Amino acid sequence: MSADGIDFDIADLAAAMAGLTPAEIDRLPFGVVALDRFGTVQLYNRTERVQSGYRGAPPLGQNFFEISNLGGSGFLGRIEQARQHGKVDLEIGWFGDFADPGRALRIRVQSGGAGDLWLFIQRDPEAETGGMPKPRSRRKKSPGCGCPPAED
To answer: Tell me, what's the pLDDT at 101?
Structure first.
């Protein structure tokens, strides 16, 4: 698979990353951050560095939740709650990054292997659709805790 075929809304975005090189991940139009099970940054793509306004060298080896505004309150708690139920597959609306504390973010968090996490960050999601909310994907949603979706 090439980076050209990767869309932010595909169901198993984390699995799609396995077939890409770091250079291809750098070319994706959205931010990508890979964390180990402790929250240590393993990969921080170029798009995320540019769009977030992060200054300095990529934060490889640093705890992501200590350097970002996502370490507090609800965000990390939701991830930990989802981990307790097994596979993490969350979509979270958030505001703020390094460059703009009021910027709208759409963040997808998915499990990788061995407790690893992938974070996918789309900025200003409504701007891409002319101010209209982005249509929801057709993938089945979990009940918000990261646990598997209920069967119909």
So the answer is: 79
